[in-house]
Amino acid sequence: MIRRRDLLLTAAALPAAPAIAQNTAARTLRVIPQANLTSLDPVWTTAVVTRNHAYLVYDQLCAVDAVGTPRPQMASWEIGDDGKSWTFALRDGLRFHDSQPVRAADCVASIRRWAARDTFGQALWAQVDELAALDDRRFRFRLKKPFPFLALAMGKSQNPCFVMPERVASTDPFQQVRDASGSGPFRFVQGEWNPGQRAVWTRFEGYQPRQEPPDGLAGGRVPRLDRIEWTVISDSATAASALVTGEQDYWEYPLHDLLPLLRRSRDVVVEQRLLEGTYGVARFNHLHPPFDKLAVRRAFAMGVDQRDYLRAVAGEDAQAWGVCEGVFTCGSALASEQGNDVMKVRNLDRARAALRESGYAGEKVVLLTPSDYPQINALSLVTADVLRRMGFNLEVVATDWGTLVQRRASREPVDRGGWSIIHTTSSGTDLGVPTIHLFLRANGANAWFGWPTDDRIETLRTAWLDAPDEASSRRIGAELNARAMEVLPYVPLGYYWQPSAWRRNVTGAFKAPATVFWNIAKG
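^ that's the sequence the OP posted. Answer follows.
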């Protein structure tokens, strides 16, 4: 069994970060981000680091509050024709970073591009008869049938619809955009971006926030900082030292083993900002052997013990993590035990026997792991240990997170640069319902990386949208859980609580479904 001490020694062996220049500017927030920013396009990738960047530079038509209710952000809306017409009207004062006004045409182009890739957006788009700008400030959806989740689809926390200029939003959704022009509270400084080391944003003086207090991701997004600098520090001990000594101001995802050290510092605050736990995911590539075979996927699942994964990330304190063997957020309305038997085996001998009977023929398994992302690296190394002990022909490819995010888009077999299994994490706020749940989409080429295909999952996802009442919704959710546990588009790895840490002179931090930096100031 892989030991937690081994994981820490692996992390300690990483090269130290370069010396960090002192920056005494009172209105500059120096941040150690959770990962390396390599893609600027929140439509092309679902990487959380790109989404966090997007919240800085883009704005949204609507956004969810702390309880997940969509609220007006850039626009208000009226619903008519028995729910089949939604008309949005932009509020005054909206401008892009080049000072051009935000128009309805920009919003329409942004919605179209987002809906082509996002799981909830695809469900919405299937019900759209027409989406058109009425004038520069108004646009309208005409729907085939009522879709009460329309505002939630666009305003959810994970992969929402960010508004881009029409010239940018007209880009093919399967091609990355490199132009990060938005209308949000901060501008991206393209000339200071050095992927793997540094990214910088400055306050957009032309931004006019809503005159409301922040509530989750809704409310006023007031830019109280002049400048935000992200510095990638892969070595956690170096990152902790930089925060304690004041060389950095904010650490998004500190290593759990270093939390006691940070808490002992009078100048550091350690708090949980995210509203839900962070859920681990082991994702198969369903296109190529060996995980294109259901029997092989099920054999692996039988060898998984979520407790091993959670201890590797968050330590022995059971208050810091929780077993959650279904596909929906534990404690949510749809959380279910139906069909979870495969996750309760937790026995390597039975897993080996199942693998022998599966028809596995020794095909190479390529596991990608991000050496600069400690939490996901820990999950990956536990899986590597399980795969080796089961008898898989395993190759572990250690790379940085940015490279992994690029490579996971490859659909090639492993001998041509592809992959077999990867890991990621997701906030529990994004796993509570089928249409937001990235890893439950099973529509082949349009599914999230790994590209599973299962008509029954897709039928149940659609049926959930039409559920007439809560009892029907829960019944369909239980059926979805059972089907997912039967065909295994992915293996859930439980959840852990991921606090952030910041210097005590940083004020205004509030709880939200995502890490955002508006309304934060530095004294």
